[in-house]
Design goal:
This protein is of the alpha/beta class and 225 residues long. It has helices at 33-44, 81-85, 90-102, 121-135, 155-166, 181-190, 213-223, and strands at residues 6-16, 45-46, 49-50, 54-60, 69-74, 110-114, 139-149, 169-173, 193-196. It has a seven-stranded mixed beta sheet with strand order 6-5-4-1-8-7-9, with helices on both faces. A two-stranded antiparallel sheet has the order 2-3. It is globular and about 45 Å long. Bound molecules: S-adenosylmethionine. S-adenosylmethionine is lined by residues 143-145, 147, 173-174, 176-179, 196-198, 208-213, 216.
Length: 225
């Protein structure tokens, strides 16, 4: 069976992608740039092997100080040995993205598209997800702690496989703070499936374990993709 690759969508609305990313302080002055690097790296590399998935990551304006930007990466670039090395670790990737943001190197397969300073990044991201659904090339899946159980031998767990075999998948995963409350309801509503890494679909009011975003991606790569 040939499996199609997955496209991961991330909204890092509070994390700026800037030429001055402080490599010594990714978690503090970097506004959790470490989280973005970990999630991007997990999407494109699993167990030391390129996944050939792709990533579209939306970065914020740092309170109107820098242009918001969309970073797109085609995971096939990791087949190039030199580019593979840029994903060697979280910190190496942070340095690479910083260089790309500086405009000092251009790499086929990677794009950084700046948005206008006044862009409402959350609203635009929601529009982008609705368009993704409308285009229908891939099934749109949100990973969420309240979603339908996907770690199961039963029906629900099969959803992901069925869609993967037919259409491929676009997967939205929240950052360290989850999906912004302002768009969460609309975003989940827009998705074809809202799935949870759990064997039991959580009851209303109860939540499953909330894993780190990068760990969620690792588990998907290990178990499903
Ligand atoms: C660290 S979690 C976000 C936690 C955040 N404090 C919240 O309450 O939403 C990062 C993302 O991983 C995904 N995630 C975490 N645990 C999950 C689970 N058990 N099932 C499905 N997705 C999960 C969700 O997309 C979540 O937004």
């Amino acid at each position: 069976m040939t499996r199609r690759q997955v496209k991961f969508f991330f909204l890092f609305e509070a994390i700026p992608l800037t030429p001055s990313v402080p490599l010594k302080a990714l978690t503090s002055q970097g506004r959790r740039f470490d989280v973005a690097c970990r999630m991007i790296r997990s999407s494109l590399l699993f167990d030391g092997i390129p996944t050939h998935n792709s990533v579209e990551a939306w970065f914020g304006s740092d309170g109107g100080k820098i242009l918001p930007a969309i970073l797109s990466i085609d995971g096939h670039i990791l087949d190039d040995v030199l580019l593979f090395k840029k994903f060697y670790s979280e910190l190496v990737l942070a340095k690479f993205l910083k260089q790309l943001a500086q405009g000092s190197s251009e790499v086929p397969g990677i794009e950084i598209n700046a948005l206008e300073l006044s862009t409402d990044v959350q609203a635009r991201f929601l529009d982008r997800m609705k368009l993704e659904k409308l285009e229908g090339r891939r099934a749109l899946v949100a990973l969420h702690e309240t979603g339908q159980a996907m770690v199961a031998t039963g029906q629900e767990g099969a959803l992901l496989f069925q869609d993967r075999e037919t259409r491929g998948l676009s997967i939205v995963i929240g950052n360290h703070q989850g999906i912004p409350p302002a768009i969460e309801a609309d975003l989940l509503q827009a998705c074809d499936h809202v799935l949870c890494l759990s064997t039991i679909t959580p009851e209303v009011g109860s939540q499953s374990i909330s894993y780190l975003g990068s760990h969620v991606i690792d588990m998907l790569n290990y178990c499903f993709l």
